[in-house]
Amino acid sequence: MRNHVSVWSRKARPPVIDRFLSPPRPFSPSALFGKPLSVMSEQRVSGILLHPTSLPGGHGIGDMGPAARHFLQQLQAAGQVIWQILPLAPTSLGNSPYSALSSFAGNPLLISFDDLVADGLAAPALLANLPDNAAPRVDYDRVARAKLEALDLVATAFLKRRQEDELWSDFELFCAHHDAEWLAEYALYTVLKARHGGAAWMDWNTAYATRDPLAIEEAQEALSHEIAKIKVQQFLFFRQWMRLKEDANGRGIRIMGDIPIFVAGDSADVWSRRDLFELDENGRPLVVAGVPPDYFSATGQRWGNPLYRWPAHRDEGFAWWCRRIHRTLETVDLVRIDHFRGFESYWEIPATEETAINGRWAPAPGYELFQALLDTCGPLPIVAEDLGIITPAVEKLRDHFGFPGMRVLPFEWGEDFNPAHYDPNRYSANSVFYTGTHDNDTIMGWFRSLGGHDSERGRTILAYLGSDGWAPQWDFIRFALGVNSTMTITPLQDLLGLGSDARMNIPGQPDGNWGWRLQAEMLTDGHLSYLRQLTQAAGRLGEGI
Fold first, then answer.
1. Catalytic: which of 63, 115, 226, 385?
2. Of the candidates 54, 366, 376, 504, which lies 20 to 30 Å from 123 by C-alpha distance?
3. What CATH number should be reported for the domain holding residue 441?
4. Which residues pair with 223 in a beta bridge?
5. What SS3 class is residue 254?
6. Does 166 reside within a domain?
7. Domain range spanning residue 46?
8. Could you confirm whether 338 is annotated as catalytic?
């Protein structure tokens, strides 16, 4: 059955996907403040999906330190040229990177203390108070308490540096570049939130919640030292991240980031720009985001994010969105935009409704928005997450701008996979093919949910793959590498053949998500060598790209 997969396809493809893959230019310190790298190439490629929190080491949570650099070496050894991550933003309730305190800031929990110590920015004794590295899952509460307390000490010491110090000059340059755009507001928001016991900004003292100018000015002065410490944390985050990105690009690896379409109501974004969101006079949403009832849920999904006041965005030429996209593309090489269909129309739910049943489709200014982004940011290395209820109008918007869409193997095959009705060459080259995403069950978890080896459906799948059933995950990966899509992405859990207990997220489940971690001994040289062989056989080997 393997001959059904055309692994050598070289169909013509739109230039947009070629932009993803160019040899990166040499890194310079100005990259911390400058334009994103160009990403053009003509090669079919593949990569791995793994969020940094899932890396080993890092004192209770994966970070941007030694384990991340080792993972880049492993990607290179396996011939992979894409590292896909989830949003890097600081998280709030539920620890979801898709419900962040800011669309612009970095998550301080990802700062590597091993690197801080190596750089002379933290005392080695601080490591003793951090969680150990043995836990198979992230204990977010414990990690946050320990790391944020230690970071407070690091930031306090940093602020005592002499101003002629070179690193201090870099810090001042960082603040000068980002203060007006997002940093000053985020730092003030973070300090005020802490002063209010972590409460959402809508429940703060009225003067702060409504941003009374005098109250804000007084807070900026009275809390200046605490605000400065938050700025130091962000400087250290992006200093480490850009160094890691430099390492990745130097190895020919591009990083694919992620942008949620909506933002959290309790965020610096909404607090600082209430005029851009559909809120009442108390700052609470009038309408919220979600999706309508479907096959998976009789009541739909009520996400609760405030919706955009699109006329206000249009009046300012979509400037907030332009800043958001530009900022993201300063830190990654290409970006997946979550829930792309919401740029054509979105499910608007009255905030008083407890479910998503009584919502309506409301139009979104997708054409105007993306044209404004093109005019401001130049070519857009965007992957459109076009899963779910996708209409011809959504496809037309995607194709108008040449954005590649996503194809996910379990969604494509469904529960009643019939090889006679399936063409593996059906996918546009201008697409990204996945064995799974962060929201999916693992590929082996999905296979077992269909009955696995002992079911008729399972045996049909194995026969189609030409699999002997010994390690079906490799046959799924081989299939994904062989499709016509120019890019193929495999979650690391699928590469390891892990079951449902290793999935990253179960949508609709409020707790227990985002905690899976790779143990260092799991990913072996054997995995890397065999993946490289499959990648080479599929014409996707990333050497020299």
1. 385
2. 54
3. 3.20.20.80
4. none
5. strand
6. yes
7. 2-537
8. yes
